[in-house]
TrEMBL record:
It comes from Lentilactobacillus parafarraginis F0439. GO terms for molecular function: guanine phosphoribosyltransferase activity; hypoxanthine phosphoribosyltransferase activity; magnesium ion binding; nucleotide binding. Purine salvage pathway enzyme that catalyzes the transfer of the ribosyl-5-phosphate group from 5-phospho-alpha-D-ribose 1-diphosphate (PRPP) to the N9 position of the 6-oxopurines hypoxanthine and guanine to form the corresponding ribonucleotides IMP (inosine 5'-monophosphate) and GMP (guanosine 5'-monophosphate), with the release of PPi. This is Hypoxanthine phosphoribosyltransferase. Pfam families: Pribosyltran (PF00156).
Length: 180
């Protein structure tokens, strides 16, 4: 897999440091609350696992699975709800844990969906923010790294369900996804 990577953007150590920094910020924000922390499957799994261990406050954890890429390198523009949360968020503080905010469509979909369910507050923590990819307005409250408009994989992010298990975040060589 390493041979398919053009360059490493963030090492395992840099990711760990970002998780620690974000964990402290989130803990301060939710010090007197019990948030519902919702991980966006599958990409945010690694990040969520690491970041919640950095937060020393009570919380509930749930997961949601949405899809807009459908195995491609660009969003289809259509966000589909694959698996819903099981927690009632009405009147609750919600923290969405996302792997990457790119076009903003998925995040906008999630924010609207949870708001319509009566969430008291909704904040977003994303490992990666790609503002150059934005097609709709979407803002994160806690950001690990800002990334260039390149196709990144690793630490949960994938191309066609591969590369999620890389311990770092790297730019995938274009020939890997343009020849398919």
């Amino acid at each position: 897999m390493d041979n398919d990577i053009l360059k490493v953007l963030y090492s395992t150590d840099e990711i760990h440091a970002a998780c620690s920094r974000l964990g402290r910020q989130i803990q301060k924000t939710y010090a007197d609350k019990v948030p519902v922390v919702i991980g966006v499957l599958k990409g945010a799994t690694f990040f969520m696992s690491d970041i919640v261990r950095e937060i020393d406050t009570y919380m509930e954890i749930d997961f949601i699975d949405v899809s807009s890429y459908h195995g491609a390198t660009q969003s289809s523009g259509q966000v589909d709800l694959i698996t819903d949360i099981s927690t009632d968020v009405a009147g609750r503080d919600v923290l969405i844990i996302e792997d990457i905010v790119d076009t903003g469509r998925t995040l906008k979909f999630l924010m609207t969906n949870l708001s319509e369910r009566g969430a008291k507050s909704i904040k977003v923590c994303t490992l990666l923010d790609k503002p150059e990819g934005r097609q709709v307005e979407a803002k994160s409250d806690f950001i690990g790294f800002q990334v260039p408009n390149e196709f990144v994989v690793g630490y949960g992010l994938d191309y066609d369900e591969k590369y999620r298990n890389l311990p770092y975040i790297g730019v995938l060589k274009p020939e890997i996804y343009t020849n398919n």
